[in-house]
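Progress note, project year one: complex with flavin mononucleotide.
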Amino acid sequence: MTAGASFSLIVGYGTDMGNAEDAAMMFAEAVDESMGITVTATELNQIDLAALQDATHFIAVTSTFGDGEFPDTATLFWEALSADSAERLEHLSFAVLALGDSSYELFCNAGLLLDERLAALGATRLVQRVDIDGLYTQEATAWNAEVIKVLMAAVPTEQAAVTEVPREPAARAVRAGADEPVVVPVSVNRLLTAEASDKEVRHYELDLTGSGIGYAAGDSIAVHATNDPALVQQMLTALGADGEQTVDGHDVPLRIALTEQLEIRLPSRALRALAAGRIADAPAADELGDGPGTWWYGKDVLDLIGLAGLDLDEVLDTLRPLQPRDYSIASSPLAHPDSVHLTVATVRYADGDRRHGGMASTFLADRTGSARVHLRPNHHFRLPAPDVPIIMIGPGTGIAPFRAFLQERAATAAPGRAWLFFGDRRRGTDFLYGDELEGFVSAGTLTRLDLAFSRDGQTKEYVQHRMWEQAAELYDWLEDGAHIYVCGDADRMAKDVDAMLHRIVAHCGQRDQASAHAYVNDLIKNHRYLRDVY
Ligand SMILES: Cc1cc2nc3c(=O)[nH]c(=O)nc-3n(C[C@H](O)[C@H](O)[C@H](O)COP(=O)(O)OP(=O)(O)OC[C@H]3O[C@@H](n4cnc5c(N)ncnc54)[C@H](O)[C@@H]3O)c2cc1C
Ligand SMILES: NC(=O)c1ccc[n+]([C@@H]2O[C@H](COP(=O)([O-])OP(=O)(O)OC[C@H]3O[C@@H](n4cnc5c(N)ncnc54)[C@H](OP(=O)(O)O)[C@@H]3O)[C@@H](O)[C@H]2O)c1
Ligand SMILES: Cc1cc2nc3c(=O)[nH]c(=O)nc-3n(C[C@H](O)[C@H](O)[C@H](O)COP(=O)(O)O)c2cc1C
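Model obtained:
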């Protein structure tokens, strides 16, 4: 504990896209304003458990990622805290704010785990954990006030001190996470996959002229799209409503609410629970999950209305606010200061006799010449210094931020080596940005390009197979200080690539499993292993 002080406070956050970081910074600012104490919000991975032994109060804000997992910026902290060897924390008072999205099965699970573990280690809850669904500013502000009230009652301010934990190198000013979206023209909408492909991936350019948006390579853009009017009409017909009526809680006619304000593509858990009780062959909503291969996968609200015979009032009660969809930016502002480029797979699939289209991806592909967007800065996903080598693993649409990185490195004539692993289904139809990538190789921006086309041969070839073939060289790059980046599918690809990275480190570094794990953890802690996965 800080000499002479009876109070020392640590504020930590676990974030993927910056919301929890913003919320933690809001809390730190509120502490400063109300208590006159300066405290730095710190990434949870940078907080040593020994620092908690020295502190009296610990405030943690974390989002949940993957399937109920901790975000990458908190995994190391959680690993240490959940270990059997973690020391008791009876002296510590704590509070947890959890950010999440209730459409996921394990809502706010990381916050819940953290809250329960701190209590199990003997720490005392200052206030009950709050689980926030979606937009966080209002509820976080109320929670801040509650925590600060308890802190102020417990702590004479003149005795207060703050435990300094190492600051992250990438500490930054509060970002404007709740920026008002702006409408920008979609100036380019071009098919990237060949007509013959069984996928549809498109390249978009959004014209930022006059929008006030300034971005960095590594950021994402949130697209505030609207639902397909044809789907809205089908829903109105199925519910026997004309669309002109107003409904409780909405100040616009039903048709507008269904088009612009409510999520009608992805059924909420409440709707699934309701439908599960009415459909004979439906499994319980929380049984077996809702991913690929499950009964629920791909079914939208209209499917459930039809199958369960639901009426307007009960359906409306379960509909969640329509959320924007994020897209990794595929351009560098140094090459394209007045536009952002996106690489978007259009979601189209058949389920029974219905054709389904993804809300935002078909909006961009079919229904608009402009889009309401706001920037989603990703301060954790950045290029290192120009001379540091980078390894990028980005199959499918995961290529997007790496196109941005390569444009950036070309524009700055960065001397660092760059290695890209790209994969997709077939070389003939799905080699996204193939000419550009080969151009980067010719220009020397890209030192190595390794490709894995999964459906061209007899057996599946994935990016991680290419990594294994080049294991010794990849390990040498890591030993030379390379940063390694992964972007694309979180469920399968990112997990397999992570397993391969551990395997390569163990094999080439002649390490046992525990030592390979520690090596990779060190990469994470030093922000040298960064992921933008979804
Ligand atoms: C940080 C981040 C960055 C991202 N970057 C990109 C990017 O660069 N490019 C990109 O394309 N996407 C990206 N995404 C994903 C993107 O945000 C959307 O989730 C995606 O475009 C689908 O949105 P949608 O509204 O079109 O589809 P939705 O209406 O949300 O429908 C998607 C749902 O449809 C169902 N579904 C999809 N395919 C099938 C199928 N074959 N069979 C049955 N059901 C199916 C699934 O339930 C799926 O969840 C990113 C996501 C995040 C979080
Ligand atoms: N969980 C999901 O179901 C999921 C995840 C991501 C994207 N998508 C959807 O798929 C569409 C296209 O997305 P996308 O272009 O980004 O990617 P994608 O088409 O899903 O995959 C790109 C490449 O990655 C391969 N791949 C599949 N499993 C892999 C694994 N475990 N490890 C490494 N590579 C693997 C694919 O091979 P094969 O397909 O030949 O196996 C393909 O060659 C979009 O509509 C998107 O929404 C679905
Ligand atoms: C790929 C992905 C997976 C997610 N998984 C979960 C989940 O399992 N449970 C949950 O409650 N929220 C989940 N979320 C929602 C986030 O926790 C929520 O959007 C949060 O506000 C993000 O905060 P952050 O920017 O600090 O990461 C997920 C979001 C994404 C993009």
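The pocket of flavin mononucleotide (ligand 3) is lined by residues 15-20, 63-68, 71, 99-101, 104, 106-109, 490, 534 (CB under 6 Å).
Residues 223 and 325 are 5 Å apart (CA to CA).
No further modelling is planned for this target in the current period.
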